Amino acid sequence: MDYLLVSIIKTLIIAPLLLATLAYIVWVERKVIAHVQLRVGPYFVGPHGLLQPIADAIKLLTKEDFIPSGVNHFFYWAAPWMGLMFSVTGIAVIPLGPQVEILGVKTNLGLADINIGLLWILGLAGMGVYGIALAGWSSNNKYALLGAMRSSAQMISYELPMALALAAPLLMSNSLNLREVINTQSGFVFGFVPNWNLFTGFQIVGFVVYMICAFAETNRIPFDLPEAENELVAGFHSEYSSMKFAAFFMAEYCNMIIVCSVATALYLGGWNPIVPEPIAQFVPTILFGGAAALLFFHAMNPGRPTDRFSFPVFGVIMAGLALLFLIPVIGPILNSLFWFLGKVGFLLFFFIWVRATLPRFRYDQLMKIAWLFLFPVALANLLLTAFGVTFFQK
Amino acid sequence: MDLVLFLTFALISVACALNMALQRHPVSSALSLIGVMVSLAVLYVLLGAEFIAAAQLVVYSGAIMVLFIFVIMLLNAGAERLTKKAGTAHFLGFPLLVILLALSSWVITNATSAAKPVKFGAFTGGGPREVGWELFTRYVLPFEVTSILILIAIAGAYRLANKEME
Lengths: 394, 166
What we know:
The complex is a heterodimer. Chain A is mainly alpha-helical. Chain A is 67% helix and 5% strand. The two termini of chain A are 40 Å apart. The model of chain A has no long low-confidence stretch (mean pLDDT 84). Chain B has 6 helices and no strands. Chain B has helices at 2-22, 26-46, 50-75, 87-111, 128-137, 140-165. The longest helix of chain B has 26 residues, at 50-75. Classes of the chains: A mainly alpha, B mainly alpha.
């Protein structure tokens, strides 16, 4: 019963945080793309547009839920929620930090700790395509159908190199449990090179292959063929409005978080810091303190009149966060969370950065990359890793 | 708890299987089949066969059924119509089905009469490590033979598709 209670509490903490994150990734994405393109992005709803996600949510909730004629009602209704369900369920096996003791209760940071964690994520990623495929098919719209077909073909093709790339780090850690995979990557070689699969496992090729496949699996630019605006109106979600439309986007961002978490766990050492221990515990404090100092400095000669008031407020929040990492008991817990979420956040930023930078591939190029380039490279990488593991066991 | 879960998902899988046969639209049937596979995966987990459950999700409901749906959409298959032309099937179908089920259940009960009843949670050798170990030691010959069989099938499919293109 204790286990059940702890699980319920953890779910009650993680689920609202996840939903808030999903809403605010949209804000971050719009801001980052805007700054890449020399715009300011959302700015007017709240300070620096910080309340924009809430305004968006209210707009989407109150919008008319239009159902076009000739749709297959059951599938039209079920598709977005199927997609969202499969992507949100994947969060359950993501390990956020090591085992900790809070108020005398020992628990893992993260919801579920199962032996087949990675297979669970791969299975759900495979199931996630049904949301998109059924949405496009049931919409009774040829553009939507084309988007759905592209999506299913793309998902089937990219799952193979992705699974092959993921198999290589698994060979080294000898487990499918994400927690154990991360534990084998702790420590440092020569005192300063982190013992991550990316560095000491020589998985740089596998990591690149995995990231390319991750872009395709989440339907992001440069592989967002299923919703290519200039060819297919809006692709599979052309006929959707209101909360069903929002569900597709939540599923997409949730998938992004999952693929980034998997990359962090398998290649980037999970919650293991990038610098050795005595320095590592002060890194978050230094970073947040630096951010606070920068904000205070810019508040003194602001570029815009409102910044005189908003920057000091953000600065105080950052300074508070910096001090939070110094509290004895909570500090180490937050520290491991910081490293894991920091890496995931960096990869998410990378996704957005790529979206702001690269154009879209053509469909035949997309298939060619998967089958003629990524697949052989992933296979060769797996073979070399297998030899390496056999001859120089880590 | 185990029994409740077992009954729930057994019921869901049977209902989905029936629905698959009764639905007229191919997409509805395919989705019901996915329901069957997912609830079977849950039953595997209950029996302690985690790896088989995950493989069921990844391979059957994640890859094979996506291909099915893809083909159904590609052909744009609509709902089937009843023709009422198959007279013999109309009268003999149901009795024959009952006889088939009775026969097969009789054979199965006779063949497995010595088997002990299954207890939930009693079996623990279903993780990826244990399955992999068995696969590459005790069952290595069938495993490799199956791989060669699949390789031959791929080569054959390639030959047939190539012929069509020429």
